[in-house]
Amino acid sequence: MEFSYLTRKNELEKLDGESFDVVIVGGGIVGAGIANLLSANRLKILLIDKSDFASGTSSNSSKLIHGGLRYLSQGHLLLTRQLLKERNYLLKNLDIVRKLSFDILVDESSWKKSSLYFGLFLYNLLGGSWRMPHFQKDGYSYPGYQGRFSYEDASTNDALLVVYNVVSAVMGGAIAINYLEATGFKETTDGVETILVNRFGDGTYRVRSKIVVNASGPWINAIYGHYTSKNIENLRLSKGSHLILRSEKFNIDRAVAFRSHLDRRQMFIIPKGEVVIVGTTDMFINSPDSSEISREERNYILDSVRKIFPSLQEQDVVGSYSGVRPLYGAGDDPGKVTRDFHIELTGKMISIMGVKITDYRRATRMISKQIGTVLNRELVLRENPKVLYKRGNLDPIRAAIMQECALTVDDVVRRRLGYYYESVDQGSSRKEEISRMLSEVLGR
Ligand SMILES: Cc1cc2nc3c(=O)[nH]c(=O)nc-3n(C[C@H](O)[C@H](O)[C@H](O)COP(=O)(O)OP(=O)(O)OC[C@H]3O[C@@H](n4cnc5c(N)ncnc54)[C@H](O)[C@@H]3O)c2cc1C
Fold first, then answer.
1. Left, alpha or beta for 375 (phi > 0: left; psi -120 to 50: alpha)?
2. Which domain holds residue 415?
3. Contacts of 30 (CB under 8 A, 6+ apart)
4. Cα-to-centroid distance, 89 and ligand 1 (Å)
5. Are residues 357 and 225 in the same domain?
C-alpha cells in the first residue's frame, strides 16, 4: 500500500469541506495509537501533525519500554504493574521492541543495596517473573563502586513505533497527513470545525468532525486555548535532554542505570548501534518550543557519567536531543510529579497529556472508550490498537518514502531509520542518497 507525498497530495485535494467522526490533532504516539484503534473500529478519522509524525516528544524519549524502577521507588505500584504489563505485551508482539539488559550500579550515590534487592525483586514480580536479584562485584572499576545488580527491560525505536501505528491506521482507512497544522476551531451545531494550514506547500482547509482529540503533547495548551480561550490548570512542561556519545570509551553491551553523584537523580547509559545515549535531565520550562539542550544540561550529563567513565571528553559527544514532557500535577520538583496520564473532556474536545510511550495502548483504549461514549458507539477495545504494518523486504529508504510518507531528509534520518540517534555521523553520509530518492518521488 502506498502512503507517500503523492497520496498526501491526493488527500489534500479532497480535504476542504470534508466531515469526519474524529479529527485527531497531533501525530505522536498518542494521536497515532488513537487513530489506529478508531480506524480499526471503522470510524472516519483524520490524523494531522503540524510537522512530521513523531516530531515532538515521541522521537526524543530515552526509547525505553519499561515499568520504571523510579516510579516503584516513589510507591506507584499500580502504575509500575500496568507499565510492565504493556512492556510484556509489546515485547511479545512487536519486533521493533527488543529486550535490553541493565546493570544497576551500587555506590555511595545509589539506593542502598538492600533497597535495590527488594525493589528489583518486586519489579520482577510485578513484571510476572519470580527471578531473584543477584549481586555481583565485578564489571566496573571507578572509585566508590561496590557492585551491580542486573535486570531486564526493553527498548525500541520510539519514532518508528509511532510511524508503524500511523501506517496501520491508514491501512484501516484513516486519513493521516503530516505537515498540516490545526490553527483554529469553531463550535458547530453538531460538532467542531477545524481550520488547517498546509506547512509543506500552500493551502488552508476547513473540516468538520463530531469530536476533536487534542493529542498535541507539549503544545496541548495552545490547542486547548484555540478551542476554549483558557489554559489547562496544573499543566507544566519539563524538558529532558540526552547526549549521544561514541561508544568506544564505554565498551558496554548492556545498558547501565546509575544515580548521578551530583544530585542522586537516576540516569541511563543506553547502547544504540555505534553510539550510547546518556540521559536524562528534568527541568521545568515555559515554552514547548524551547527544546534545545542547554550548556548547563550538557555539563551535568557529562560530569555525571564521567564519574563512571573518567576518560570521556567533550570530543566524544557526537550529538544531543531534547524532549518536553507535559506533566499534570503540582510540586516544585519535576521528578516527583506523577508520570501517569490525564484526560480532560471539554465540550467536543478531549485532551490527553502525560502518556508514556510504554503505556500508549492502555491510554489509547481509555480515551477511545470516552470517544465511544460521546459518539454513542460501542467500540472493540480489547487487544487494540494492533500494529498491522511491517516494512517487509523493500529497501528501507524507499519504504520510508513510499510507504511511510517521509517528505524530507530529516524525516528519513531521524524518524524512519533512526540514523540520527544510532550512528556516529548521525546519518550525514546517507543524506545525499536520501535526497536523490526524495527528488525522484517529489519531482524536485
Ligand atoms: C526526555 C524524555 C524521555 C522520555 N523517555 C521515555 C521512555 O524512555 N519511555 C517511555 O515510555 N516514555 C518516555 N518519555 C515519555 C514519552 O516520550 C512522552 O510522554 C510521549 O512521547 C508523548 O507523546 P504524545 O503523543 O503525547 O506527544 P508528542 O510526541 O509530543 O506529539 C504531539 C504532536 O502534536 C503535534 N502538534 C502540536 N501542535 C499541533 C497543531 N497545532 N497541529 C497539528 N499538530 C500539532 C506535534 O508536532 C507533535 O508531533 C520520555 C519523555 C521525555 C521528555
1. alpha
2. 394-444
3. 215, 217, 352, 355, 360, 363, 364, 367
4. 21
5. yes
For 9-18, how does the pLDDT look when each residue is reduced to its tens digit (9 = 90+)?
A: 999 999 999 9
Q: Is 375 domain-assigned?
A: yes
Q: Which residues touch 48 (CB under 8 Å, ≥6 apart)?
A: 23, 24, 25, 26, 27, 176, 177, 178, 180, 181, 182, 196
**What percentage of the chain has pLDDT greater than the value 90?**
89
Ligand 1: atom nearest CA of 51 is 47
**373 and 297, same domain (yes or no):** no
Cα of 326 vs centre of ligand 1, distance in Å, is: 8
Handedness of CA 223, 336, 103, 278 (dihedral sign): positive
Q: How many CB atoms within 10 Å of residue 230?
A: 10
In a domain, 334, yes or no: no
Q: Do residues 109 and 305 lie in contact, with contact meaning Cβ atoms separated by under 8 Å?
A: no
Average pLDDT over residues 316-332: 89
Q: How many CA atoms lie within 13 A of 407 on its CB side?
A: 17
Same domain, 242 and 148: yes
Query: What gap in Å lies between CA 176 and CA 166, rounded to an integer?
Result: 7
**Is residue 63 in a domain?**
no
- Tell me, yes or no, whether 139 and 227 share the same domain: no
Is 70 inside any structural domain?
A: no
Residue with cell 519499561: 66
444 pLDDT above the threshold of 70: no
Q: pLDDT at residue 174 above 70?
A: yes
* 89 plus 210 within the same structural domain: no
Q: Which residues line ligand 1 (CB under 6 A)?
A: 25-31, 48-51, 55-58, 61-64, 181-182, 215-219, 223, 240, 280, 323-325, 355-358
- The count of domains in the chain is 3
Protein residue with its CA nearest to atom 4 in ligand 1: 61
243 and 298 part of one domain: yes
Beta-carbon neighbour count of residue 47 at 10 Å? 31
- Identify whether residues 105 and 223 lie together within a single domain: no
Confirm if 215 and 24 have CB atoms less than 8 A apart. yes
Rounded Cα–Cα distance for residues 252 and 250 (Å): 5
Indicate if 167 and 97 belong to the same structural domain: no
